[in-house]
Design a protein that fits this description.
single chain; alpha/beta; TIM Barrel; eight-stranded parallel beta barrel; two-stranded antiparallel sheet; 12 strands; globular; DMSO2_SphG
Length: about 375
């Protein structure tokens, strides 16, 4: 098995703004809010406009323009209960969660939402957060070794009885979870996402996760990541889907879209971006091979703190749709979108961009069959 062409249609997710400051570190006006009522309406809007997933961010203390933050798992559950179809992914940090405790929460959330709860395992870059909470800070590859055990334990507890696990970070003795999540042939247990860019992240994604989340990348960057991910997945007889981060600026004209990007960067909160860059550069460069997240990010890239501008989903609806389908042809299964003005831009995307994506996908399929 391989990761090639697992889905017929590219799927869409959006970043849940459960953290203050929006999705760009800039003083530009962002018509968004981190409060629950706004986010409840936004989740319902996204669901109506063709989005499949939402990803709740995780922060425990203020950092680099994000002064306030709601906890990701509880916030995700609230959004699940306010929607009917949308799947909500909660980002979690190994080291701050015990996997069996999260497995218990996840099983309950899965029952309450009729099988729509998912987890994104992020290994952590913010050392100050761990230290403030009295938790040991591990170097990059050790954090990903811990994440690998975390993913393995979650899967075992959700699918097996009398679980025993003896690792370097977690030890489980004869543990049985009841009730288990809602298992179906289409979805055997809550979906597991592995975030990252590094070789260690790709290994974890290929071996243990259902999905691999990448920071923003151009076509060459996506191809390089996919080649590695596919090699790992094939070696373990697995299939792994690929999600790509992108900051989406779709406007009626290309000039308007490019002017918006230019204004975002011109109004960047320089102090916050530089502080973020200092923290994450250390995280990226601490990998054994220098391929970590943000290892080669520029100042402009980091104004959107997951390199979302690099994916270049910026332009008219036609231009954005064409580039999305080009990514799909490379093997991208899901676009994780951030927006400047979430509510109205998700509506615009659903009305103007998504129909074009589906038309292009259909025409591409017809051409390949004929």
């Amino acid at each position: 098995m391989s990761t090639e062409k697992i889905t017929d249609n590219v799927q869409f997710a959006y970043w849940v703004p459960n953290v203050s400051g929006g999705l760009v570190t800039s003083t530009i006006d962002q018509r968004t809010s981190w409060d629950f009522e706004y986010n409840k309406r936004l989740a319902q809007t996204a669901e109506r406009n063709g989005f499949d997933y939402a990803l709740s961010q995780v922060r425990y203390m203020a950092s680099y323009g994000a002064e306030y933050q709601h906890e990701s798992t509880s916030f995700s559950l609230a959004l699940l209960l306010a929607t009917e179809r949308l799947k909500v992914i909660a980002a979690v940090h190994p080291g701050l969660w015990q996997p069996a405790v999260l497995a218990k929460f996840g099983a309950t959330a899965d029952h309450l939402s009729n099988g729509r709860f998912a987890v994104n395992v992020v290994s952590g870059w913010f050392s100050g957060e761990f230290r403030a909470l009295g938790e040991p800070w591990l170097e990059h590859d050790e954090r990903y070794r811990r994440s690998a055990e975390f993913l393995e334990v979650l899967r075992k507890i959700w699918t097996e009885d009398h679980v025993d696990f003896g690792g370097d970070f977690y030890r489980i003795r004869d543990f049985t979870l009841k009730p288990k999540p809602l298992n179906t042939p289409q979805r055997p247990n809550p979906e597991l996402f592995q975030g990252g860019n590094s070789t260690a992240a790709r290994s974890n994604g290929g071996r243990y996760a259902d999905w691999y989340f990448s920071n923003g990348k151009d076509f060459d960057g996506v191809t390089e990541q996919l080649d590695d991910l596919r090699a790992v997945a094939r070696a373990h007889d697995r299939e792994v889907r690929f999600g790509l981060n992108a900051f989406i600026i779709a406007r009626d004209t290309e000039r308007e879209a490019r002017d918006t990007l230019r204004e975002i960067v011109e109004k960047a909160n320089t102090e916050a971006v530089e502080g973020f860059r200092d923290s994450v550069k250390q995280a990226g460069k601490s990998t054994s091979d220098g391929k970590g997240m943000w290892a080669d990010s520029s100042f402009e890239d980091l104004v959107q703190y997951n390199d979302g501008f690099r994916s270049q989903l910026i332009g008219t609806p036609e231009q954005v749709a064409e580039r999305i389908v080009a990514y799909k042809k490379l093997g991208v299964d899901l676009i994780l979108g951030g927006f400047l003005h979430f509510q109205e831009e998700i509506e615009y995307f659903g009305a103007k961009v998504l129909p074009l994506v589906r038309e292009l996908e259909a025409s591409s399929t017809s051409a390949s069959v004929s």
